[in-house]
Amino acid sequence: MNVEIALAKRMLFRAAPIYLLVPILFLIKSTDSFLTSLISGIIVAMGFYLGAFIMSYAAKISLNFYYFAALFGYFFRLIFIFGLLLFFKNIYPIDSLAMSLTVPIVFLAMLFIEMAMVIKRKDIDLDWANDNRSRDL
After folding, report:
1. Mean pLDDT along residues 107-113
2. pLDDT at position 123, please?
3. Residue of 55, 54, 47, 35 whose CA lies nearest to 104
């Protein structure tokens, strides 16, 4: 089982209300703001899923490569996200306010939702999470 990919899919599913709510709030401003916010949120989601994909397959190769992917994969995902955002900015007349607010709101909301799920132990059905020997100490 690709644990990281399963977690990323769950994270995207749990954060779906955020991906819908933030663009709808920008719809009040304009249609361009709505589209900018929607596409910015999708780009952030793609970055999270790409990170899970990289980590999952790096873990199959070796533990050292997994550590390398964790460290440098973070920078690669940031470059990927910002590169796509800049590309989007060059091909579509965006609302800079909508983009600059959507990206951190969606990014941080996803992290806080996952933090809450980890604290509530919602993902104990995954292979690596069933080893809870440290809890018994």
Report:
1. 86
2. 62
3. 47
